[in-house]
Inverse folding.
């Protein structure tokens, strides 16, 4: 593996820049064509988005190797998020962002921002792709994710409005932060391909559970406060690590 240069921090997150661009382009395409999209197609876009979110979430959640870790992460993380009122804070952030847009574009900005942020940031491709981009300069995983996110952003904007475009900022901070951390701290000592560990597996499983909850909201089945579950994503690797020490 070639030596890692700290001066190449921007290059270390090239996959994230591609991903951000794909989401913005997809969102712009739908915004420009928004008035030409019939309402039945918009409703179908919502259903299709909810279904694909459910499928992806189920696939990730079923990868859990320790259901106890998954359960504890959701219980403790959900409780912490409820106590911190994360959903309310996210909604206020989205409401504040609405002032940046014309009045005709306001209304569902918060929902689109939160839903798209969760969908685009949660999952194995986001974290593994960001790590590989930062450590090895390999952005192929994020390149594939960019194609998927770009296409999904078109459907998301049709279903949830222009707030989806704001999720590009979340992608930049989340994936870019992971890539930079990996570039600065992991790359100098990495010597081989990163293999999935129990903490990463359980992180993905909890992310899948969060996506399933999100799909219920998108499909109109339950109006769940998805943002309150976000701390579970941080707790999952820690609980899995502790479980590994005790097992």
């Amino acid at each position: 593996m070639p030596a890692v240069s700290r001066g190449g921090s921007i290059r270390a997150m090239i996959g994230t820049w591609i991903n951000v661009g794909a989401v913005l382009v997809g969102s712009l395409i739908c915004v420009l064509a928004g008035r030409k999209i019939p309402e039945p197609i918009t409703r179908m876009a919502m259903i299709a988005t909810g279904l694909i979110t459910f499928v992806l979430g189920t696939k990730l959640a079923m990868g859990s190797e320790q259901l106890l870790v998954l359960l504890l992460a959701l219980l403790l993380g959900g409780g912490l998020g409820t106590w911190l009122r994360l959903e309310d804070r996210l909604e206020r952030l989205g409401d504040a962002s609405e002032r940046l847009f014309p009045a005709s574009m306001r209304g569902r900005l918060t929902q689109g921002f939160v839903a798209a942020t969760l969908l685009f940031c949660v999952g194995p491709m986001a974290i593994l792709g960001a790590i590989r981009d930062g450590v090895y300069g390999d952005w192929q995983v994020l390149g594939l994710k960019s194609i998927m996110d770009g296409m999904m952003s078109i459907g998301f904007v049709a279903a949830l409005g222009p707030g989806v475009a704001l999720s590009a900022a979340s992608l930049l901070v989340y994936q870019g932060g992971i890539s930079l951390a990996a570039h600065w701290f992991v790359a100098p000592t990495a010597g081989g391909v990163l293999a999935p560990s129990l903490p990463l597996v359980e992180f993905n499983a909890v992310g899948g559970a969060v996506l399933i909850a999100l799909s219920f909201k998108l499909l109109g089945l339950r109006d769940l406060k998805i943002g309150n579950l976000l701390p579970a994503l941080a707790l999952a690797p820690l609980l899995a690590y502790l479980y590994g020490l005790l097992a």
User: Anything to note?
Assistant: The chain has ten helices and no strands. Residues 8-246 form one domain. The CA atoms of residues 50 and 215 lie 5 Å apart.
